[in-house]
Design a protein that fits this description.
Helix 7 (182-192) runs antiparallel to helix 11 and helix 11 packs across helix 12. This protein is of the alpha/beta class and 610 residues long. A hairpin with a 6-residue loop joins strand 6 (145-151) and strand 7. The strands form four sheets. Strands 13-21-20-14-15-19-16-18-17 form a nine-stranded mixed beta sheet, with helices on both faces. A five-stranded mixed beta sheet has the order 3-2-1-4-5. It has a five-stranded mixed beta sheet with strand order 8-7-6-11-12, sandwiched between helices. The protein has 21 helices and 21 strands. The structure holds fe (ii) ion. Residues 129, 133, 152, 155, 306-307, 335 line the site of fe (ii) ion.
Length: 610
Amino acid sequence: MGTKPQLILGISAFYHDSAACLLRDGEIVAAAQEERFTRKKGDASYPANAVAYCLKAGGITTRDLTAVGFYDKPILKFERILDTYLGTAPGGFRQFLMAGPLWVKEKLFTERDLRSKLDYEGEMLFAEHHESHAASAFFPSPFEEAALLTMDGVGEWATASFGVGKGDDIELLKELFWPDSLGLLYSAFTYYTGFKVNSGEYKVMGLAPYGEPRFVQLIYDHLIDLRDDGSFRLNQDYFGYLDGLTMTNEKFHRLFGGPPRVPETKLSQRDMDLARSVQDVCEDVMMRMARTVHTVTGQENLCLAGGVALNCVGNGKILRDGPFKRLWIQPAAGDAGGALGVAQLIWHRHLKQPRKVTPGRDAMRGAYLGPAFGDAEIEAYLKSVGAVYHRLERQPLLETAAKLLADEKIVGWFNGRMEFGPRALGSRSILGDPRSPRMQAQMNIKIKFREGFRPFAPSVLRERVCDWFEMDVDSPYMLLVAPVKKERQIPMTVDQRKLWGLDLLNVPRSDIPAVTHIDYSARVQTVSRDVSPDYYDLIAQFERLTGCPVVVNTSFNVRGEPIVCSPGDAHTCFMRTHIDALVLGPFLLHKSEQPAWKETQNWKQEFQLD
Ligand SMILES: [Fe+2]
């Protein structure tokens, strides 16, 4: 009897953030987003590179696959789009003409298209969008059973769902439908405050603590009819996404007293107040939904996925004030994670394979599921571009990097397999000293080319988290926000209390100011040695030098660019920015030793940095 492994390829594509994932006998072998390879942020095209990477990581071709899964049902989604646009003609018809032909060509023929691109004739299955999200939240979680909650912009028709995961299967009990969508409400304010829909939501969340919630009542009075159980209706009179090409309409603009902020213009106190208001409403909805899910399911554990589950401020609140004992959030909570969800759904539901749970440990391997690069490959690249580099043994390399950080240098850290999902978790990260009062402004402006208000996140040794933050749980994926420990906070003086909005930015809030947000919160990543040994040992070395077991961790990219994937991407980003030193596997590069950089592309224009 042969022991041929069962191989399942999951694909998410043609909407947001395409991705692929490979399971071998139920275990996650590889997962990656297409944007990392094509260098187009949020690339939604067929994930040819991500699929090729997954097959290579498994050492297989598509002929070896047991099944291919697609993360949603294109026909249902097309039906929703057709219904929306034609139902709201004539304005809607204009949008249909713009969106329609692409849908007909690319999306309606998904199966035929996928088969020809994959050169694959075997079994192909399609899951529903929120089922894929729910599967990605439950199956890799560390729980035998749990309640599931998914929230996003929209899939086919559903915009939120909840249910229960037990043993080998999940069951969705209830859904909320288009056009009533928490994700789209948040996106409407993202658009209105002058940020990009689908990627600027993070900025709105980061801006919220600078504002006052003075529009909350207006939102409840006019935009959203929220019920106690967390279900709601949105008043479509105020939104543009049903019949136009924008998120908000004239009536919305009149209600909030003016047109949308022009992107890249100065942020006003009003923008911050709008951000704060929609964030407060979003947290209210999330909390009510969580309470209902708890009442209906009676579960102690909650698993979250869908784009709204990236709202780590809301997640932190659910954990602190909500009814559940434990929370687990899929790190690739957006649509990329659907590739993983559908593959696992096929493994457990379709192939009826049992699920093995290790208590206290999830199946995501720290989300380090992307490509890694060998020393020889890295060195060949460095030689080819004439870089000056030093090869170091592991311990001296960690000591040198930690010393550089302690000396307020900014270090690019490229180590092992790339992360799956939107956060850099110590494989493709830029690191700094959180104790430095200058670090936040310096990293925002000179490295990331982005708004000065954007907060940075701390990575902290798991064993030390409760000495520095008001939390004592695992947060390996940086999806929970918690306050900096009370005794480390620096209260504001009487004069500082008079400051408003962004003027507050330069007031140090704690003894780790670079990662302490204006409201004393921090988006924490806990680092465990068994999952991230190199990153853990680096932070431990930094602690030995400074007494501080925390570093600033921001993703390795500039604004508008996907996180770096290859040594070449990392080296290019290093040379274009003010990163002081780069650790690429076992190699160390100092900026001061490098030959002059010859730019070949108009990259600032490409990433819209001018
Ligand atoms: Fe989604």
